[in-house]
Each structure stands twice: as structure tokens, then as C-alpha cells.
TrEMBL record:
Name by which UniProt lists this protein: Histone deacetylase domain-containing protein
Organism name: Guillardia theta (strain CCMP2712)
GO cellular component: cytoplasm; histone deacetylase complex
One Pfam family hit: Hist_deacetyl
MF (Gene Ontology): histone deacetylase activity
Start and end residues of each Histone deacetylase domain: 37-317
Any single GO BP term: epigenetic regulation of gene expression
Top-level division of the source organism's lineage: Eukaryota
InterPro entries: HDACs, His_deacetylse_dom, His_deacetylse_dom_sf, Ureohydrolase_dom_sf
Length: 380
């Protein structure tokens, strides 16, 4: 069995977002009582704990990491933004931009998360492992060049992909994002690049409200290398299975006769039926299927080179079972743990693909330039 890498640092649990008014576009008044910030360490720690108790961690290769260097971060983020983060981190913390609060020392933890992603890329490309999972915190896919957004300070997956391109010499990378929220920061980082095919499967018009639309196709050299598949609220297992099959088919042919050299996944568990920040209906077997599909894609295209980076997922109760299903599929090892909620959620209505969901997927794919769909990115 080919080894699977795994990265988790206790320091990730020390990132602290403070109290929250449950950030929404509403006025903060006396009548909005603050709560503990929804992005807490617990959902991630409980994933790690269940992996440990299940015995699965013993079957993985621990991937150590160093913090990302400033040069590595500056491939994605601006110097002005990094200076702001440094100043806030060395004082009392603050907000990195739009709903991205952090405490003193928060930048150091974010650098460690980004560095873990880079280390996983190196481990896969050096063939020490065939695939790997980075259980990261803070998440990254919302972070833009000049600001943090949506709990994200640094864009972990974009930083790691830039490393793969500029240091390791890769020219064809696929990034698939199945977090319930659109990966706006990752989209921005590669919007004019023909070296990264970015595909985002997300809830339509969730966070952020200003991106994630099907007509955002890239620009310049990157035209056609950006695909958004916004799904209607209430989408469940059937819709996500259809969406990931479409995404993998597009990914496999997006570079024409050349195959992708690395598959990277922004893995969020917030499209589960239990999650407080999404309105979707997925369950642990959905995530097992998503992982199976991208693993088979990697096997067909790049000798199995596959990396999953953790993004969202805020149900402390249910995210661990989703994470376990993903890791079982990555390792090819089935643990004795059973999802105690699976039977109930699988019986909930409309889990199968609905006509309006199929229409949403088809409508998005119809916007992709025909040269990309037919596997001829140069348009010859």
C-alpha cells in the first residue's frame, strides 16, 4: 500500500479568533449577543483525535514542517499586506481584512500552516509519499493578495501551488475546491494563469457574496482555466457526486494532450448536513466518494500525486466522521469506526440528484470555452 502523508501541528489549535457577532452584513447592536467565534480549534482537534483513536494515524507518514518563508508568501500576497499582518501580530492582533480576526502571534501560526502545505508538496513530488492530508488552521482559500477574508490569513493552497510551479518546475496543476464557500482567494491567485486549472464546487451565493459565479472564467492566458460550479442550497449526496464527476472530467482534459502533474484539493467539510455555515446535505459517504474520484483522477494523470488541504468545516460533532472517511479512502484502509449519523442523514429527503441541481451544473459547464471542453487549450 502506497504511503499517505499527514500533517497536524498542535500550534494550529492555538490560533484564536476571539468572540464573534456571527459576522453577517448586519448592524452590531445591543440586541446581537456575541458568541465564541465559529472557527474554533475543536472541530480540527476532534478530527485528529478520531483519526488517532481509529488507529488510522499509525498507517500514515507524519510530515514535519517549517514555517513558510517571506519569499514563499510573497509569491501570493503583497508586501503591504504582509507588513500589516506582522504589525498586528506583534501587537494585539486584529482583523486581517474581512472577517479574518486573529490574536497576537497569529501570523506565526499562519506561516506554519502554509509551510506545512509546502512540505506536503515536497514530500509528494519527492515520492516519499503518494498522497497526503494537511489538517491546517487557520484555513486559507479566502485569503486574497491584499487582505484576509473569511477566517483566512494566508492562502495555504495557493502558496503551495506557487511553490510547486516556481521552485519544483511544475507546469500543470489542478486545484479542486469543495468547501461550501467559494475559493475566491485561490481563484484570484491564478485567474490569469494557464498553469493551474481551478474548479470550485460551492453553495451558490454563500460567502463571499461577490464571487463564485459561473461566468468567472479567468482572463488572459488563464481564460477557461477557472470553473465555478455553484450548487443550489439543499444540494446533497447526488448533486455532489454529479459535480465531482464533471469536475474530474474537465480537469483531466483541461491541458489537452498533456496530463496534470499534481492534483490539489481545498477540502472543506462545511457542506455537511450538520454544518452551521452551510445549507447543504452531504454526509461522510459523500466525502468518501469525492476523495475516491480525485484519487482515481490522480492515478490516471500523475501517478497518484494528490494533496488535500483542510479548509472549513465547523461541526465539532460531525466533521470528524467526514475527515475519517476521507483518510480511509486516501490510505485504502477501512477502520472499525462507523458513522453513527449516516443512516439518518442518508434517509433525509432529496439526497438524490434533483433536476434543478443538474441544470445548475450543466449551465455552469456550458460557459466553459469549447477549446477547454474538447481538450484543446491552445485552440488549434
Amino acid at each position: 500500500m502506497a504511503p499517505t502523508g499527514y500533517a497536524w501541528q498542535e500550534a494550529f489549535g492555538w490560533h484564536f479568533g476571539g468572540m464573534s457577532f456571527h459576522e453577517r452584513p448586519c448592524k452590531r447592536t445591543l440586541f446581537v449577543q456575541p458568541i465564541q467565534h465559529v472557527e474554533t480549534p475543536e472541530s480540527k482537534r476532534r478530527i485528529h483525535s478520531l483519526l488517532q483513536v481509529s488507529g488510522l494515524l499509525k498507517e500514515t507518514v507524519p510530515i514535519d514542517s517549517l514555517p513558510a518563508t517571506l519569499d514563499e508568501v510573497l509569491r501570493v500576497h503583497s508586501q503591504e499586506y504582509l507588513t500589516k499582518l506582522t504589525e498586528l501580530s506583534e501587537c494585539e492582533g486584529g482583523d486581517a481584512g474581512d472577517c479574518a480576526p486573529f490574536s497576537p502571534g497569529g501570523l506565526g501560526i499562519a506561516l506554519l500552516a502554509a509551510g506545512s502545505a509546502i512540505s506536503m508538496v515536497n514530500a509528494v513530488l519527492d515520492e516519499r509519499i503518494v498522497n497526503g492530508y494537511c489538517l491546517l488552521r487557520p484555513p486559507g482559500h479566502h485569503a486574497e493578495r491584499d487582505r484576509g477574508r473569511g477566517f483566512c490569513l494566508l492562502n495555504n493552497i495557493a502558496i503551495a501551488a506557487k511553490h510547486a510551479i516556481e521552485v519544483r518546475g511544475l507546469e500543470r496543476i489542478v486545484i479542486i475546491d469543495w468547501d461550501v464557500h467559494h475559493g475566491n482567494g485561490t481563484q484570484q491567485a491564478f485567474y490569469d494563469s494557464d498553469k493551474v486549472m481551478f474548479i470550485s464546487i460551492h453553495q451558490d451565493r454563500n460567502y463571499p457574496l461577490d464571487s463564485g459565479f459561473a461566468d468567472e472564467l479567468g482572463q488572459g492566458l488563464g481564460l477557461g482555466f477557472n470553473c465555478n460550479l455553484p450548487l443550489p442550497p439543499g444540494s446533497g449526496d447526488g448533486a455532489y457526486r454529479e459535480a465531482i464527476r464533471a469536475a474530474c472530467s474537465l480537469a483531466e482534459t483541461s491541458f489537452g494532450d498533456e496530463k496534470p502533474q499534481l492534483i490539489m484539493i481545498s477540502c472543506g467539510f462545511d457542506c455537511s448536513f450538520f454544518d452551521p455555515l452551510g445549507s447543504m446535505m452531504c454526509h461522510s459517504e459523500t466525502f468518501r466518494y469525492l476523495t475516491q474520484q480525485v484519487k482515481e483522477l490522480a492515478d490516471r494523470c500523475c501517478s497518484g500525486k494528490l494533496i488535500l488541504l483542510h479548509e472549513g468545516g465547523y461541526s465539532e460533532v460531525y466533521a470528524p466522521f467526514c475527515g475519517l472517511a476521507v483518510m480511509e479512502e486516501l490510505t485504502g484502509i477501512k477502520s472499525k469506526v462507523q458513522d453513527p449519523y449516516l443512516e439518518e442523514v442518508a434517509m433525509l429527503g432529496q439526497q438524490e440528484l434533483q433536476p434543478h441541481q443538474q441544470h445548475a451544473i450543466n449551465s455552469s459547464l456550458e460557459k466553459i470555452p469549447s477549446r477547454i471542453l474538447r481538450g484543446d487549450p491552445s485552440g488549434n
